[in-house]
Every structure is written in structure tokens, then in C-alpha cells.
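Researcher: We're teaching a course module on how sequence relates to structure. For the next exercise, students receive a sequence and then see the predicted structure as C-alpha cells, so they can try to spot secondary structure elements on their own. Here is the exercise chain.
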Amino acid sequence: MEVLLAGYNVDYDIIREIAAEHPGRQDLTPETVAAAYARISRNPRPVNELRALARGEVEKARASNRNIVFEMGHSSIAEHAVFNLDVLKVSRLLVEEIEKFRLVSYTEKSQRYVLFKDDFAIPAEIRKAGLEEIFIATVRAQNRCYHELYEKLRPHVFAQNPELAADPANVLLLEGWAKEDARYIIPLATETQLGMTVNARNLELMIRRLAACPLSEAQEYSRRLFDATQRVAPSLVRYTEPSLPPAETRKELRAQAARIIEKMQGFSAGEAFTTDKGTAGRMDADAGKADRLVELLDATREADERVAAALLHSASHLPLAHCREIAARMDRKEKVALIKTALRRMKAYDAAPREFEQVDLLFELTISATCFAQMKRHRMASITVQDYDPALGVTVPPAVVAIGMEKSFREICARTEETWDRILRAVPEAAAYILTNAHRRRVAMRVSARELYHLARVRADRHAQWDIRETAAEMVAEGRKVMPLTLLLAAGKDGFDALYGRIFAAEG
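Model: And here is the predicted structure for the students to work with:
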């Protein structure tokens, strides 16, 4: 056996220094690795020799890539070329578009740990519509409230946690708690930054999809992404035109959905789905406020039985259909014993067994932008969203209420919604920029039981931010109603050992 290091991330400044010292070199590109790996399937030479060959014949390697990736359609070859990208001065709203791509890695500047200044994006759409003045005035008011909230939340958090406050090592932790609640009032236009690692295949997909996004900022990002990478790997990024029809498709779907809903339910489609009258997605001003924040809409029927069958299947040589027949005849005691056997050696840091992916749950979540910013990071889930909608109300941090700032908080939200309504009438695609992190949207989220375990581990844990912690805990509680055995050990890391002890206590 041999395992050879073929490459690793190197800072681009170092690569440029090498290129400057050796201007004739062409092999400072990830294309050679992709080309070498593409040849593995048809060339008997050792792969390390294929890499050396590709480095010595870069133009041939590029021609090979173009043929294999684009002519023959083996797109996975492009996944061997990987880029690290610094992304600066982008809005939080654009980050939501960027992070829709599930096979890309991100680390984002955290509004939970960093005290933000007053930097924000002014969308081109807002400028063109002549709404720049009211937009800026509203953002300034939001940011003033943000800093006022932090100044009052900081002493409150320290006073509420005297034991932690006594240790200077906890200062940053407690200040972070104050920042994470203050951030609910700042807008989605707030500038942020992130580090992104993406392979060439997903890079091309991101360029194409964001080129089709109705936001001007997303289209500019698409262009800059292409400009930053195209010269490095020209053979692996080829198709850059918008991958989907422009926003016309979304408009057509809205109009068609309005007609169907009007026919089936009898209320005014104009009120329900208008995109230019200031009532996008709303039935009436208070309809969303009474909605449950976490609702389980669908789940695999007989999920515990399906998991038992999956465990039987992987532990035997029987067809899955036969295993399901057996599981259907098992009594509860037998199912409990089988599933507990699968979970017995689980630790707080372990993933649930792969068999738990064979059952899933569909939730509708009505959550704040702050909560969604965290929830969307669970990329093994299937997530679709509605636009942000002020009719769904806002999430006010309990600490904001405790320091007597709820009235001021809601006044800023009301002012924000007035500005939002004006923008919506003129340039609906840019209206969300002005909304705060407290504003809500509806999210449809389908997760396997295995992914719900992972979500619970990191989000129902006491170290998690309170908003997503409450949401995750309720998702697990709803899930347990339909698959109690499958979710036996679904809990935050901090509660895992105690739960494990209760579940397995009777066995000594």
C-alpha cells in the first residue's frame, strides 16, 4: 500500500511569488491534478507518474480536461480542482444566495462574535429607484438601535451570569451573548465577509446560477467569481451564462399559484400574491403571527419499522422487501431491542447509523433571519424558502424585553416595514435588503432522521444560540411523536450522556 500526498492548499500570494520568480512556469494550476486523475481509468501508469506527466504538458492536460469534462460529460473530474476564495464586502442577503450551494464550504464573519460597525450595501436597484435616501436613513436608525441595544445588553448579560462574569476568561463569551441579541435589529443589507472553498464543478454552477439571480449584487458576484478564477483553471470553468431563466419564471409561478389558490380557496389572489402592491405572500396583515413556529407536516410512515427493516437488511443477506415484511411482524419490544443495539455504542460526537437516512421528516419553520442564517448551514437537508414577510412578525430576543428595550426595538421594526413597503412597490427584488435579522420567513425543511440527530447535537446544545436552540428542540420533540424509537438519542451534546443513561439504565 502507498498513500502519497498529491497536493494541499497553498496561499495564493505564495503562488504569485513563485510565478514571479519563474515566469515561464505553467504548472501552478489545479488543472494538472484533475487531468492526472482523469487518466487513471484508462492509463496503466501509477497515478503519481500521471501527475508528473500532466505537470510537464499543461496545455495537453487542459485539452484533456476540456474533452473529458465538457465533451464526454465526466463533470466529476472538475471536482479535483479546488479553490479557496476570500469574499469581502457582501451583504448578508447575498450570503444567503451564496450559501444555497450545498457542496461548498463556508466560514462567515459572525454577527454573534463580532461587533459590527455601520457598513452596509446600498443595492443598485435602490439607487436606480430613487430610494437611496430613505434606505440609508432607515439603516442608520437600525444601526443606532443596534449599538444602543449592545450597550444595555452587555451589563445585563454580565449581571445575569455572575459566576461566569467572575472569571475574566469568560468576558468574550458574555459579550458575544450581548452581540447575538443586539444583531436582531440590523438589516440584511449589513456587509459581511466569508472564506469559501469550492471545487471547479461547483464553482461553475455557482457562477451560472448567481448570474441568473434577480439581485444585481448576485450578478456582480458571479462576474467577479469568474474573473478571480478563470485564468487559473480555464479548462475547467467553461459555461458561465445564466443557468436558469431570469426572474420571469418566478413571476409566472406566482401568477399561476395565485390563480389556483383563488379558485380553490376563494380569497383574493391579488391580496395573496401581489408583488408590486406591498403585500407579497400575505393573506392578511396578522395571518402569519398566529402560525406555529415549528410544524411537522409529513414524515415517513411507520418510521421505526422502516429503520428496523434497514438494520435487518444491512446485517443480513435478505432482500430489503423481505426485511420489511419481517419488521412489520416484529413487536415493539423486538424493535426497541434492535434499535437500541444499533445505538448502544454511540457517543455524543458520533453520527447516527446510516440506516437512519431511510426515513425522513418535513418541517415548516417560521423563523427569523438570524435563525435561518444558522439553519441553512445544514446542507444535507432539503431547504426551500418563501421571501421574508413582515406579516409573519418579528422575533424579539427575551433579553431585549428584559432590559426594557422592546418598545424601541418594535418601533425600529415598524419604521423598517414602512421603508420595505415603499421599496417593494418600486423594486420588489431588492426589498429584503432593508429587513432586519428579526424578520421572519417560512422555510420548508426536509431532513432524514440521521440529519436531525446531527442538527440536535449542535443546535439543541446549551452552547447553541438560543433562537435556533429552541427551534431545534421543538423539531426533535415533534419528530419523537412519529418515530420515538428512531430518535431515542437525539439531543444536544450537553444532554446526550444523561439521555443515554436513562435509555440504557435498565441494562446496567
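Model: If you want an answer key for the exercise: The chain has 22 helices and seven strands. The first strand starts at residue 82 and ends at 91.
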